Amino acid sequence: MATLLSATPRAGWRDYLEMTKPKVVVLMLITSLVGMFLATRAGVAWSVLLFGNLGIALCAGGAAVVNHVLDRRIDALMARTHKRPLAQGRVAPMPALLFALSLALAGMGLLLVFTNGLAAWLTLASLLGYALLYTGYLKRATPQNIVIGGLAGAAPPLLGWVAVSGHVGAEPLLLVLIIFAWTPPHFWALAIHRKAEYEKADIPMLPVTHGERYTALHILLYTLILLAVSLLPYAIHMSGPLYLACALVLGLRFLHWAWVLYRGSRPHAAIGTFKYSIGYLFALFIALLVDHYLLLIL
């Protein structure tokens, strides 16, 4: 019991920060910010902008900590994650869970006070979806884990939109759809690169259960779907020609990486595809934001 209730003396603030997956949270906040600014033609109130995003970040960080707790034994077996605080025993499970609960409660409190109830409860739903449904069950149950569980990770632009507007509409759901289509090729590329580690940890990722060639084919197919979905904001007059041009250039480059991976014509194509996918999502949402304000000016 004592080992559950106390962390080792080596635990420091950097360990707790690492458990929140700050790089992932930053990418989520970029999409949340874009959702906020796209939701209105007027400016976003500073209180919603600051405390709304802080609330979303705290809840996302809490979910990430739960992910660390539930995956600590798996993390210890994988080169990419074996130095994580829980995997190495620098932080014990119970303090980590209390930290996660504190982050979630603080985030929910900020969202309820400074935004609205719908934004707060949708954020809680996405937190539970990622921390419990995906990490606790789907990750170990099916090779389609990232497809089904990806919906929780696709929520930030919807959360940002609802924090400002107070309602759900077709436009934020389209932003969710873009990230939902982006998640499988993004994560499966990493899964191919780390196939041996997932196999060692007995995690049924698609490359482990169906092979790399099959996975690469599905990455290519999902990238085609992503390219089509990414053009929908222009099709419904949510964005203009600038976004359309950016979406085409970025999407065709992503498709090129997927094709290279499928053909197997370049070493390390999987990790190259994975790294490009991160920059792709960042650039696509920035293009949406710039195009939105350019249309307002014109």
Walkthrough of the structure:
- The chain contains 16 helices and no strands.
- Residues 1-7 have low confidence and may be disordered.
- It has helices at residues 2-5, 13-19, 22-38, 46-70, 72-75, 93-114, 117-141, 145-153, 156-165, 170-193, 195-200, 206-210, 212-230, 232-235, 241-263, 269-297.
- Helix 3 packs across helix 9, helix 13 (212-230) runs antiparallel to helix 15 (241-263) and helix 15 (241-263) packs antiparallel against helix 16.
- 78% of the residues lie in helices and 0% in strands.
- It is mostly helical.
- The longest helix has 29 residues, at 269-297.
- It folds into two domains: 1-166, Tetracycline Repressor, domain 2 (Orthogonal Bundle); 169-298.
Describe the secondary-structure layout.
Elements: H1 2-5, H2 13-19, H3 22-38, H4 46-70, H5 72-75, H6 93-114, H7 117-141, H8 145-153, H9 156-165, H10 170-193, H11 195-200, H12 206-210, H13 212-230, H14 232-235, H15 241-263, H16 269-297
Summarize this entry quickly.
By secondary structure, the protein is an all-alpha fold. The protein has helices at residues 2-5, 13-19, 22-38, 46-70, 72-75, 93-114, 117-141, 145-153, 156-165, 170-193, 195-200, 206-210, 212-230, 232-235, 241-263, 269-297. The model is unreliable at 1-7 (pLDDT under 50).
CATH architecture of the largest domain: Orthogonal Bundle
Number of strands: 0
CATH topology category name of the largest domain:
Tetracycline Repressor, domain 2
Principal-axes shape call: flat
Span between termini: 64 Å
Mean pLDDT: 91
| Helix-strand string | HHHHHHHHHHHHHHHH
Strand content: under 5%
Integer-rounded radius of gyration: 20 Å
CATH superfamily of the largest domain: UbiA prenyltransferase
Low-confidence spans: 1-7
Label the structural class. mainly alpha
Biggest sheet descriptor: none
Q: What's the CATH C level of the largest domain?
A: Mainly Alpha
Number of helices: 16
Helix content, binned percent: over 70%
Number of domains: 2
